[in-house]
Amino acid sequence: MTADEYASYRAGSAHDYAQEIVESGQLDPDAAAKRAEAELAELLPDGPDSAGMHLWTAETGAGERIGLGWIELRRRASGTSAWIYDVQVDATRRGEGWGRRLMEALHDAARDLGATTMSLNVFGHNTAAIRLYESLGYAVTAQQMKRDL
User: Fold this and answer.
1) Phi-psi region of 111 (alpha: psi -120 to 50; beta: other; left: phi over 0)
2) Do 106 and 69 contact (CB within 8 A), yes or no?
3) CA dist 147 to 16, 18, 20, 26, 70, Å?
4) pLDDT at 102 (0 to 100)
5) Where are the beta strands (DSSP E) in 42-111?
6) Grouped pLDDT means (10 residues each) for the chain, 149 residues
7) What letters, b where the CB count within 10 A reaches 16 and e where it falls short, cover 19-42?
8) Which residues fall within 8 angstroms of residue 35, CB to CB, at 6 or more apart?
9) Which partner from 6, 70, 109, 138 sits 20 to 30 angstroms from 115, CA to CA?
10) Helix axes 29-43, 3-23, angle to 10 degrees
11) Dihedral sign (CA 8, 84, 79, 142)
């Protein structure tokens, strides 16, 4: 991801993440916006050059930008794993198989960087993403639940 692509991504990513937090019922819009900004500032203090972070722009074979992927490498005593922070496919290109191809490209990139496992978080209301991740072999390792009173 270039610096210009990152600037464009960063401008919308906090808003998008805050919206996901609100839709999950965790926080109200103001608190979600503050949390999203704080987390992104902490995770990406140097933008795309932040230590351990890897951000890519996804393109078609013809060079058309259709999305992005962001992972972090985490080195542990048990080995190196990759954590997916963000995967996006442009709304106009969803349903064409790009999400699967992007995830497979992230798997390959993480493997090339030395990772032996890959993990992610997905909000419960994002059923399309959950179906994709399950079809790619991801399994639930933790689960949060909530009930209105």
Assistant:
1) alpha
2) yes
3) 24, 21, 18, 11, 31
4) 96
5) 53-59, 65-76, 79-89
6) 90 89 90 94 94 95 94 92 95 94 97 96 91 96 86
7) eebbeeeeeeeeebbebbeeebee
8) 18, 21, 27
9) 6
10) 140
11) positive
